[in-house]
From TrEMBL:
EC number: 2.7.7.41
Protein name: Phosphatidate cytidylyltransferase
DNA-binding among keywords: no
GO molecular function, one term: phosphatidate cytidylyltransferase activity
Annotated family: Belongs to the CDS family.
Membrane topology of the entry: Multi-pass membrane protein
Source organism, top-level taxon: Bacteria
Claim: Transmembrane helix is one of the keywords in the record: yes
Gene source species: Chryseobacterium lacus
GO biological process: CDP-diacylglycerol biosynthetic process
């Protein structure tokens, strides 16, 4: 058997185990049974999102190849400060009780950054543009991800929104791939991602919504309507992949990194999540207001 295949399977398995342990209560339960410690699930989740954010920001900087100006030195201080503001809201449960107009502004910045990537790439060849894009593309999505689950530090409970979000993203990718493999004829974006087809996209949407129906049926305590979440994920997960593909293509890079052997970098694995997390968070905001 191909050694690279075994490496890919092993590293993918380890990645999945770590991720699930940090976004599902089974993680803290298992560690508390093994170690003489009391570990809260929300600390594992926060640690995972913090690592994803920092590693993603580092990879984004490498992809965009900053010059010798001052901008590359303030990327991390600025991004960490913004993520810190989200962190305060996370630990004080402020996500669930207060809606702020600054959230809409931050979500709008993500949209503007994506449009700039596809329509005005020249702006990103300046270090100032690279600075702004890196901060928006990494600090904001993982910051909003902190607002997806509900938890109680006193009752040691942690809800499963992020866990099922990852399940839907992985399933959407698989459904779209299989549908496209057997029925795909019309390319979605041949210059950016030549393997994606409209038939695969349609199959991913339909099958992901069906899966989301059963997720909600057997997990009625989740926030929002998960058929809506399934639709949003099936639409925006492929778009997230296209965004990262366009970023790498613009700067002549094949992989964002090699932190996960055989799978690439953090941005390669989380390109869909980076777009889906703020989109689903926006849906939760609107659903609460309605």
């Amino acid at each position: 058997m191909d050694r690279n295949f075994l490496q890919r399977v092993l590293s993918g398995f380890i990645y999945a185990v770590i991720l699930i342990a940090c976004v599902h209560p089974i993680g803290a339960e298992t560690l508390n049974n093994i170690l003489p410690l009391t570990i809260k699930q929300h600390y594992l989740f926060y640690g995972l999102m913090s690592f994803f954010f920092l590693a993603g920001a580092w990879e984004c900087m490498r992809i965009m190849k900053f010059g010798g100006g001052y901008e590359k030195w303030i990327v991390f201080p600025l991004a960490i400060f913004i993520f810190y503001l989200f962190s305060k809201r996370f630990f004080y449960h402020d996500f669930f009780f207060n809606f702020r107009l600054t959230e809409i502004l931050a979500l709008s910045l993500i949209l503007i950054a994506v449009v700039t990537l596809f329509r005005s790439t020249n702006e990103l060849y300046y270090d100032s543009g690279k600075l702004i894009f890196t901060v928006i593309y990494t600090a904001l999505p993982f910051g909003f991800a902190l607002g997806l689950p509900r938890y109680s530090a006193y009752e040691n409970t942690f809800s499963l929104e992020v866990f099922f979000l990852f399940i839907l993203i992985w399933s959407s990718d698989t459904f779209a791939y299989l549908t496209g493999k057997f029925f795909g004829k019309h390319k979605m974006a041949p210059k950016v991602s030549p393997k994606k087809t409209w038939e695969g996209f349609a199959g991913g949407v339909i099958l992901t919504i069906i899966l989301a129906f059963f997720i909600e049926k057997y997990n009625p305590g989740l926030r929002g309507n998960w058929m809506v979440v399934g639709f949003l994920v099936s639409v925006f997960a492929p778009f997230g992949d296209l965004v990262e593909s366009q970023l790498k293509r613009s700067f002549g890079v094949k992989d964002s990194g090699n932190i996960i052997p055989g799978h690439g970098g953090i941005l390669d694995r989380l390109d869909s999540f980076i777009i889906c997390a703020p989109v689903v968070y926006l849906y939760f905001i609107l659903e609460k207001l309605i």
